[in-house]
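Example 3.
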Amino acid sequence: MPYVNIKVTNEGVTAEQKKQLIQGTTQLLVKVLDKNPKTTFVVIDEVETDNWGIGFDQVTELRKAT
Amino acid sequence: MPYVNIKVTNEGVTAEQKKQLIQGTTQLLVKVLDKNPKTTFVVIDEVETDNWGIGFDQVTELRKAT
Amino acid sequence: MPYVNIKVTNEGVTAEQKKQLIQGTTQLLVKVLDKNPKTTFVVIDEVETDNWGIGFDQVTELRKAT
Amino acid sequence: MPYVNIKVTNEGVTAEQKKQLIQGTTQLLVKVLDKNPKTTFVVIDEVETDNWGIGFDQVTELRKAT
Amino acid sequence: MPYVNIKVTNEGVTAEQKKQLIQGTTQLLVKVLDKNPKTTFVVIDEVETDNWGIGFDQVTELRKAT
Amino acid sequence: MPYVNIKVTNEGVTAEQKKQLIQGTTQLLVKVLDKNPKTTFVVIDEVETDNWGIGFDQVTELRKAT
C-alpha cells in the first residue's frame, strides 16, 4: 500500500505525461517490492517556479538565466 | 502540537465540509492523545483528479468509467 | 481515496491509540465526504521531541520547563 | 542535499518575500550543517485560509474575528 | 529538479531494493519530463505497520488476517 | 501559523544543531512574513543515507566515493 508524492515545477506537464508518471511509478513498486497496484497511490504536485528554490535561487530566475 | 495533512481529490469540497474535517480531526487528537487544540494544525490539500493515480489509473479516468 | 498524514511527537503513543486515530480519521472522511474507506490511507509519523520546534523552542525543552 | 518545505497561508506572499525565504533557509543549512547549496531545495506551499485549521477554527474565520 | 517521496511499510526493504526504487524513479522523470537527474531527489520513508491504516485497519492487523 | 519540514540525511546532527535550525527558521518567518512564532512549527526529519537518492545514486554510495 505505497504512497508516492512527486513534486515538479509547474511548467506545462500534460495529462498524458502525468499518466505516464503514475503508470511508471506504480509499475516500479509492483516490480521491485511486489506491491498491490490497487492500493498504490501516486500524487503529483505542480509547484510554481517562484516557489521552488535551489542553490539560493528561485527556478523562475534560473530559467531566465538559461 | 500535532500537524495533520489531509489530501483529497479536488471535487467540490465545500467550506463547511472543510470546517467539519478540521473540527473532527482536532477533536480526535484531543480525545485520543489529550493534545492541546490551540497548537493542533490541520491542512487540507485538494489535488486535481489528473494528478492522483490509483491502480495505474488517473482518478479522472476512473470517474469517467463509473 | 484520501491520504491523511498525522504527525505527533514520539511520547509513548500506544498501538491502541494509533488504532483509534486511524479509525476516527477514516470514519470522519466517510461521514463528511462520503469517501470509500477501502482506499483511505492514514499514516502516523512519530517525531522525536528534539526534532520538533514551536515558538523558537524544541519540545524537549518545553517539556522540561513544564 | 536537504529538502525544505515551507507551508504558509495564501495571503499575498510576494515573489520578493519568497526569494528571501529561499535564500534565508538555504543560508541556514549552509551555516548550521555545512550543506551544499547547489543541492538544497526549498519548496513553498501557499495554502488557502479555508484549508488551514488551528484550534478547531479555519484561518478564514480567525482573520474575520480579529 | 523533481523531489519524490516514496512511503512504504517497514517490512524488510533491502538496500538493493531501495537502489532500484531510486534508479527507476529517477529514470522515469528523465524519460517522461526530461528532468536533470543531478537535481532529482528520491526519499524513501519506511513506516511501521502499526502506523499505517487502510480501510479502518492497521496494516499489522491486516497482515495477521492473511 | 507556518509549518516547516526540514529533511536532511541522518549523519550525526546534534541536538544543538537542531535547535539552531529551529530558531533560525522561525526567526526567518517572523522577519520576512511577520508570522507569530508561537504558532510556527518546525519539524526535522533525519533520513537514512540508504533511503536518499540523488542523480541515480544512494547517498551511502556517494559518501563512499568521496
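The longest strand of chain C covers residues 3-9. The helical segments of chain C are 15-33, 59-65.
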